[in-house]
Amino acid sequence: MAEKSIGSFFGRPLNAINVGLHSFAQSLQAQGVPVVDVDWRPPLVPKLQFTRTGVDIDAANTEAVTRIVQGRPMLVGLGIAREVIPGYHDQLILHAGPPITWERMCGPQRGAVMGALVYEGLAEDEQEAAQMAASGKIEFAPCHHYHTVGPMAGIVSPSMPVFIIKNEAFGNLAYATQNEGLGRVLRYGAYGADVYERLRWMEEVLYPILKAAIESIEGGIDLRAIISQALHMGDECHNRNRAGTSLFLRAVTPAIMRTCADRERAAQVFEFIERNDHFFLNLSMPAGKAMIEPAEGIEGATVLTVMARNGTDFGIRVACMPERWFVAPAGIVDGLYLPGFGADDANPDIGDSTVTETAGFGGFAMAGAPAIAKFVGGTPEDALNATLEMYEICFAEHPHFTIPPLNFRGTPLGIDVRKVAETGILPRLNTGIAHKEPGIGMVGAGVLRAPRQCFMEAFEAFREQCQGHG
What domains can be seen in the chain, in order of their start residue? Predict the structure, then answer.
């Protein structure tokens, strides 16, 4: 009897489904067997249903996501950081990510701090700025501790203009600086005469013109509506903001024309925003922050309210433990690089911009933004699969943020530490890449997953809380 091929059974072609180790599928494929490879992992932990006596976790999470989707972030004005951010003072520098000291800061975050101190006039040059930062005379704090978010290094210094976003549903405020653009910019850790010149123009021209225009618009500009529409136009409002920036410019231009008598300066503002596709990022981020904050402090709620990176550490905070950071080493980005740069130049993951994923858009909405693949790498199919996978670890779907290719299904909302622990699936993120040395700036963009450690520590802390109060 002739020996049968592994690719047949009773003389018929064999088709296989592999569940588990990918190497099994590779072995069969090498022998010509068609394989459907199912990415499945056994549950890492048992599912928790209840926390403190009488508190239902699912009910708590329902309340948390209900508050988030009810949020109505409106852009109502601008101000100088020291004058409008509660608790701000002249020796305070805010940064992205969880708490960190100068000694542990990565290169781009150090570069941005040094540049900010020169911009503020507190140091003559970057060397003196580094000495001042190390001296203890400057207080460093996470943006998130001050209702603020910052992309990449996330540096906010006292004189910087910030957008003011009001959540009309709950009354809370959130803040973010104006977006400088890409390349050699402070938020990517660059410093130098060109960086300072741009920042001063943004303070002296861009800020007052936008402030007057926005504050003349009755009720402000509805950022949730812009995000919702931009998601239907190919943005995901984290690393692709072309539609969002265009929609914002359309909303603000009539007000600029009515409030700015200097036509040349008005034209400069228009050109600056129009040429910077990422301008809306610094509006989508505080919009996300404003929507999420009302979910903080809900007993028994296991959805994230903060997910942020400082280039050294990756940190999360959970709704039921709003003051506690769970931290793990920042990950390495799998990216596409600008000419002349490569993986050896890259700093680990950095920035508060993962507030977008936390709020239910950004990388979680990539299925509706296939063009993002050209910026961060991968294919449109990868973008689709990323969104579909994120439904597995989220508690709900966002009714206001929908994805046309998925028949207008709501975006994944409410990253649930229980689901991350149960499934082993980690949040997928897309991000920019900064050079690891201070002073250089942007070198690329890419994708990665959040680190497992901080999620498992958050889950264990929650489980201990349950055992201690059950």
Answer: 8-38 (no CATH), 57-66+296-469 (3.90.1700.10), 69-288 (3.90.1710.10)
